[in-house]
User: Fold this.
Amino acid sequence: MTTPRISCIIPAYNEAARIEGVLKAVVKVKEITEIVVVDDSSEDDISSITQKFPTIQLLTHSENRGKTAAIATGLLHSSGDYLVLLDADLLELAAEDIVQLLRPVLEGRADISISLRFKPWRLFGIDPISGERMVPRSLLMEYIDVLPTLSPFALETYMNAKIIEQNLRIAVVSWPNVESPLKYRKYGFSRGLEGDVGMVTDILHTTSVTKLFKQFYAMRLLRVR
Assistant:
């Protein structure tokens, strides 16, 4: 049996202060054959961080296009049979966390895997808007022409709809020590609060609260142990 190729795609916008920890963890995971960072026209110098990791491919948008478009760019410039999608701002991420995300899919126990780190969602056993996932390339490649047209934070809810349509088995992987700081902690209260509100508004522009909870319920039914 041929060992599948795994590409890791990391969209990044103004995350030079945090992305190095993520990259240090990813490069230690031998199962990942390709790492692509997509700089979505950051105002800081992400390239000075990625240069420390010669095996990493850095792609740069000339203008800010949002996370979904950044993932689409990474998809077009990667070749893995599977994709590991990671946010660039994760704190305390370890290589073993990523390995745990890969394992259920590589062992055939699930079709996709999703991290569970955000405390409120832990009470419910699945996080439908988690940005850390391992998915088959085909799940996104089939819709590559659609992805760049979606709003900046629409990727997870759009992906959820396809996962539910295709009845894919979901492994939920607990990451209790990993944190993604809210924007007000990264950029200050005023700018950060505006960013957090904008992100939530963008998600709800793509799907209503009712539809999001319907996705949550459907995904819980697809969860495997």
Notes: The chain has a mean pLDDT of 89. The radius of gyration is 16 Å. The beta strands are 6-12, 34-39, 56-60, 82-85, 112-116, 133-136, 170-174, 223-224. DSSP finds ten helices and eight strands in the chain.
